[in-house]
Specification:
It is a single chain. By secondary structure, the protein is α+β, with helices and mostly antiparallel strands. It has 5 helices and 4 strands, in the order E-E-H-E-H-H-H-H-E. The strands form 2 sheets. The chain has a two-stranded antiparallel ribbon with strand order 1-2.
Length: 117
């Protein structure tokens, strides 16, 4: 989630890395659990406009872990922005591994908090 708590930076299929309004982001999902993970928001901002990594998301699904270095999928973007996962391991991270590395948000603000995974 961006600092204004009204937007998220996400890697979205068909659109790439972009800034989305939190209400639009939330409306796409039946249920969301907001969690937080230590990271560098400026790294996420630096990737806005980059394409979505279709090859990478298929690589995670089929466990081949192929990816395009200049493109990004959801968990790869989050992993790249963490302060503790080395860049060369970003493409190996799944939503499940990031969930396990994250923690519940301490404070809930109208169902919107620090980060969404």
């Amino acid at each position: 989630m961006d600092e204004d708590e009204a937007h998220v930076i996400e890697a979205k299929g068909g659109a790439g890395v972009l800034v989305s309004d939190i209400a639009d982001f939330s409306a796409r999902y039946h249920s969301i659990e907001y969690r937080q993970i230590d990271g560098d928001l400026n790294r996420a901002r630096s990737l806005i406009g980059k394409p979505f990594d279709n090859k990478g998301i298929k690589g995670v699904f089929f466990r081949s872990f192929n990816h395009c270095p200049e493109s990004w999928f959801c968990s790869e973007l989050v992993a790249y922005c963490t302060t503790f996962i080395p860049d060369e391991y970003s493409q190996y991270q799944t939503p499940e591994t990031l969930y396990r590395l994250s923690k519940p948000c301490v404070e809930q603000v109208s169902e919107v908090t620090e980060a969404a995974i």
